[in-house]
Design brief:
alpha+beta; 24% helix
Length: 1056
């Protein structure tokens, strides 16, 4: 996590699935060089380094940082370089694969769809109306109807046309009008006398199971699925039904429900005689005819203007197409649309020690409306699942000699099938023998000394106690051979009641906490398909990426073969019942390859030097930054060490070389650090909390009033605790701009690494590293501010997230160069995507900042990139956030001056992928070329959106960014009929302006930077967000303090 140079872009573009957050954030995480210190004598003597820059090892001169091939980091491109990937592109990595999916078999994109798309826009007369279009600035609390989600002005036509495969199947939907019901399953309350008459079961301490003796009111998870299935079996009466087994059911005819809509279901799978009441609430009927009319015309016959269009109908189709997979016991599901085969070994990969979780290659499916047809979006996806199998075997695999609390954590929360043995027959006894049966329970952990509460609590001799070491109190009727109102061990109970000799070496497993029930491990089977609910570890994430990272050909082939099988798209009776058919072939669509812009630096004589991009990247040989930042007159560094001293002389020499390198790059800084009467080394014991030691050192640095602090982190991998402490202290407490570097990287003294981190130093100092040779047309007149903002939520955490805030990051440009993006950040209520009232104040602050850099003028145009909202939230952006933005403008601008505003949503977490059809139009990683844009074939003609793959994916399958225009008062009025081309061109060219990279990035910088700001905010409160699973939590709500960056760093790129 040290300053990573330019990193890998935004993670995710490495094969299916999210794979965590990949390399998206982190700012300074990957290599940077910094002066390691002055000795007590203060002389900056350079140690045993010296020499000039020899090319950083194998690569020779020209700053290429190592030879080609392998995992070389060539040409200052950040990340993994442009060279060979693993084993070299085209080598064994693609052994046995065709160059493209189905070579020479790609059909031409459906000409009928192309004609319909053109006709719809022509009929709407958008092209002819462009010049006369009047934009209302809107003074009310909401955007006027004419502004909301403006119609696409035209399809883009710039660039070289190419035919691409898309991961969509055409759907035939002859389904008549459908009936929809919302579902809710609640436990029916029992009479008190019945409730208290429950007796102990299967040799465990008596009492109720469940969480601390409390029955959950609503059925959830596997229980909910079983209850809904049983209810539908009772009342469907042959009527075709489909459900996601959670909250709704779709049918082709009204269901014969009781008058009150409640169906009672007996549920005994957990060993209790429970009754659940499933409430069926009729929802408005689904008008499939109106949907089909809309698809043909892109005009809603009902006059409804809500977005997304026909959301309920499309959701119903997704439920129908996903029902086959969701109803199978051999398929696990994750969320509403992802399905994973549990019994196909080729699709499963173990993530190894310690938890032996598994990553499974599964498949996403979701229906989507498009011009002239309904489509099924299908993609490879990856999910992480808990281990399954016999609990005794799992214990053997995990190991019985480790800390008991770790084994306890490993097993807790797993749902298992419990084998209840047949009772031993007693000669002369009356009544039949109860047969062996299976019930399902949720494991609470293993036997521990603090189990239970109150009188007669269990007696557990030690943590992870075995059956002979766990005793519980027996009362009432007891098995022959045991005493009533006395304690007995689990081993004794099973022997006397069931005639079963337990396996003595395994810890006893418990169910429930306040009144636990105990069972031998060998009688339990963990049910497969249980999703891992915590964040994956770094090692697990690395293993997952290795498994998930496959070529476009491999993923497309999987979708067509295994994907169709897992999703049940062929020969499904359910699809036939609903009149749905799935085309056998993936779609082809038309894309366009946009021309890459040239970038500009300065040469050693400070003259403009144009550098051409190749395959989305370029090198920095013999160039200087375009504009140095503030002069760094006072800087220092800290060398963090673990238990043993580092190579202090070597680090010192590397720091001296690096500073000289930065000065040659044009970065304005003094050659020597501040002189202190103490050395740079700070010793922190491994695994110790670093905050106090680093705070003490940062206080000592105050006497020199440093403008920059470089921190050398110990080891070969970044210690997250040290990194987080450095950023908190520098950004929040002391106001020092900081850059972290790993000792293992800096000491190599490679020019590529030096340059990578030098770019960050210049940005933090307010400089501009590079710009475009030809300025972007709509920006070059200096009247337009570009702004981006994002929200990150407390998700994927191992603990309860109550009280944890959502974190907001906002950046904005300050001039036409688009090289500096100062930030502001704040927190708001947790898991709330829409911004609160703080937006008004912070947005006004961005306007004033722009004015300070532009001679007191305010921007005439404001282009906003809103990151990360889903289609279902588009209208909320217009209804909740836009009014606050308008108020900020009203409070800042003169009465007769109002800016024109455009809002574009940028999304990376979607499932659309494109694959090349022609080897002449693909990259070395066999992806579509960088700069490829798609705005037709899989879109709705009247919705102004497009997919852009601006970057070159070095491995895996490239994920395009998806942009949708929510509001436009800028492009159509400024560019007329060229508005679509203008927006696509602006977005594409901005991807070449990411300041810490020498390559195009996958999403435009305002959205990318805003995401990094959110990640940095999360670092400040890491103690709350990243607590260990083993830390106890109470029922009280956590209160997380709001954190603001230090006044010294406000309105800077401190986060980069």
């Amino acid at each position: 996590m040290a300053d990573r140079g330019r990193g890998r872009g935004r993670g995710g573009d490495r094969g299916g699935g999210r794979g965590g957050r990949g390399g998206r954030g982190g700012g300074d995480r990957g290599g940077s060089a910094t002066f390691s210190g002055i000795g007590p004598g203060g002389d900056f003597r350079g140690g045993r380094g010296g020499g000039d820059y020899r090319g950083g090892g194998r690569g020779g001169g020209d700053y290429r940082g190592g030879g080609g091939g392998g995992r070389g980091r060539g040409d200052f491109r950040g990340g993994r370089g442009g060279g060979g990937g693993r084993g070299g592109f085209g080598g064994p990595k693609f052994a046995g694969e065709d160059e493209v999916f189905r070579p020479n078999a790609a059909p031409r994109p459906d000409p009928a769809i192309t004609q319909l798309e053109d006709k719809i826009l022509s009929d709407l007369g958008m092209a002819s109306k462009m010049s006369a279009l009047k934009i209302s600035s809107g003074k009310g609390s909401k955007a006027s109807t004419s502004e909301r989600l403006p119609c696409r002005p035209a399809f883009g036509n710039r660039g070289t046309e190419v035919t691409l495969w898309a991961n969509y199947f055409a759907l035939g939907v002859k389904t008549p009008s459908l009936y929809k019901y919302s579902l809710k399953a609640t436990l029916k309350k029992k009479d008190k006398d019945t409730d208290t008459a429950q007796t102990p079961k299967k040799g465990k301490k008596g009492g109720k199971g469940g969480k601390d003796g409390k029955d959950q009111k609503e059925a959830k998870g596997m229980k909910l699925r079983a209850v809904i299935k049983s209810a539908l079996d009772q009342i469907s009466n042959g009527i075709p039904c489909a459900t996601e087994f959670k909250a709704q059911v779709i049918s082709t005819a009204p269901l014969p429900l009781p008058e009150d809509g409640i169906v009672s279901v007996s549920y005994t799978e957990e060993g209790k005689d429970d009754t659940y009441e499933v409430k069926f609430d009729p929802a408005p009927d689904l008008n499939m005819d109106a949907l089909r009319t809309y698809i043909r015309s892109m005009q809603n016959p009902t006059g409804d203007t809500k977005f997304p269009r026909f959301a309920n109908e499309i959701d119903a189709i997704s439920i129908i197409t996903g029902f086959q997979a969701r109803s199978s016991d051999q398929v696990g599901s994750l969320g509403s649309s992802r399905y994973f085969p549990l019994n196909i070994s080729s699709e499963v990969n173990s993530l190894g020690f310690p938890d032996f979780n598994t990553v499974i290659r599964g498949y996403f499916q979701s229906a989507r409306p498009a011009t002239g047809r309904i489509l099924l979006n299908a993609n490879v996806s990856h999910g992480v699942f808990r281990n399954s199998g016999n609990v005794a075997d799992l214990m053997d695999k995990y190991g019985l000699n480790g800390p008991p609390n770790m084994l306890n954590k490993y097993l807790s929360g797993l749902r298992c099938q419990c084998r209840i043995l047949a009772e031993k027959t007693v000669p002369g006894s009356k009544g039949g023998k109860q047969p062996e049966r299976l019930i399902k329970k949720l494991i609470a952990g293993i036997a521990m000394p603090n189990d239970g509460s109150g009188e007669n609590r269990p007696r557990v001799k030690r943590p992870a106690a075995t059956p002979s070491e766990v005793s519980f109190f027996l009362s009432g009727s007891v098995p022959p051979g045991l005493k009533a109102d006395a304690y007995c061990t689990v081993a004794e109970y099973y022997l006397k009641k069931y005639g079963y000799q337990v396996k003595p070496k395994y810890p006893v497993v418990k169910f429930g906490n306040a009144r636990p029930i105990y069972m031998p491990a060998e009688l339990l089977e963990v049910i497969p398909g249980q999703v891992l609910k915590r964040k994956t570890t770094a090692d697990e994430t690395a293993q997952m990426i290795l498994f998930a990272c496959r070529s476009p050909v491999a993923n497309a082939t999987s979708i067509m073969s295994m994907g169709r099988r897992v999703l049940g798209l062929d020969g499904s009776p359910k699809l036939t019942q609903f009149g749905v058919t799935v085309d056998k072939q993936l779609l082809t669509v038309t894309g366009r390859e946009l021309l890459a812009p040239d970038v500009a630096y300065l040469d050693p004589q400070n003259r403009k030097r144009i550098v051409k991009a190749f395959e989305g990247g370029w090198n920095m040989r013999d160039v200087k930054v375009v504009k140095p930042g503030r002069h760094i007159a006072r800087w220092t560094w800290v060398n963090v060490e673990f238990d043993r001293p580092s190579d202090r002389d070597g680090i010192l020499a590397a720091m001296k070389d690096w500073v000289a390198f930065m000065r040659r790059m044009g970065i304005s800084m003094e050659p020597a650090p501040i002189m202190y009467n103490f050395g740079p080394a700070v010793s922190i014991p491994r695994n110790a909390a670093p905050l106090d030691a680093l705070r003490a050192r940062f206080k000592m640095l105050q006497s020199g009033s440093p403008q920059f602090v470089f921190v050398v982190l110990p080891g070969k991998k970044t210690d997250a605790n040290i990194y987080n402490a450095v950023k908190f202290l520098g950004d929040v407490e002391f106001g020092y701009p900081t850059v972290c570097v790993l000792q293992a990287n800096i000491i190599k003294r490679q020019p590529q690494y030096f340059a990578n981190v030098a770019l960050k130093v210049n940005l933090k100092a307010g400089g501009i590293n590079h710009k475009l040779n030809k300025e972007v047309s709509i920006i070059k007149d200096g009247k337009t501010m570009v702004l981006g903002y994002d929200v990150t939520h407390p998700t994927n955490l191992a603990r309860d997230t109550a009280g944890l805030p959502s974190l907001v990051g906002m950046v904005s440009s300050i001039d036409q160069d688009l090289g500096q993006w100062p930030a502001t950040a704040w927190s708001q209520a947790g898991k709330v995507e829409m911004l609160d009232e703080t937006l008004r104040e912070r947005f006004a602050g961005r306007l004033k900042l722009w004015s300070r850099h532009n001679g007191g003028r305010l921007p005439e145009n404001i282009i906003i990139f809103r990151d990360g909202v889903s289609e279902g939230q588009f209208e909320q952006v217009l209804d909740k956030e836009l009014p606050l933005i308008r108020e900020a403008c009203n409070n800042t601008y003169p009465a007769k001056q109002k800016p024109k505003i455009s809002i574009i949503v940028s999304v990376k977490r979607h499932q659309t992928r494109f694959y090349p059809t022609d080897p002449n139009h693909m990259t070395k990683s066999r992806n579509i070329k960088n700069g490829t844009v798609v705005d037709r074939g899989v879109t709705q003609a009247t919705v102004w959106d497009f997919f852009l793959t601006a970057h070159q994916a070095l491995q895996g399958t490239a994920r395009p960014a998806h942009y949708t225009v929510l509001l436009d008062e800028v492009f159509r009025q400024t560019l007329g009929s060229e508005a679509a081309n203008g927006l696509e061109n602006l977005t594409h060219e901005m991807c070449y302006l990411f300041g810490r990279a020498t390559k195009a990035v996958s999403i435009c910088p305002p959205a990318y930077y805003a995401d990094i700001v959110c990640t940095r905010q999360r670092v400040y409160v890491a103690d709350y967000f990243d607590r260990s699973e083993t830390q106890s939590t109470t029922s009280s709500v956590t209160v997380v303090p709001s954190v603001e960056v230090h006044e010294n760093l406000k309105d800077t790129m401190y986060y980069i």
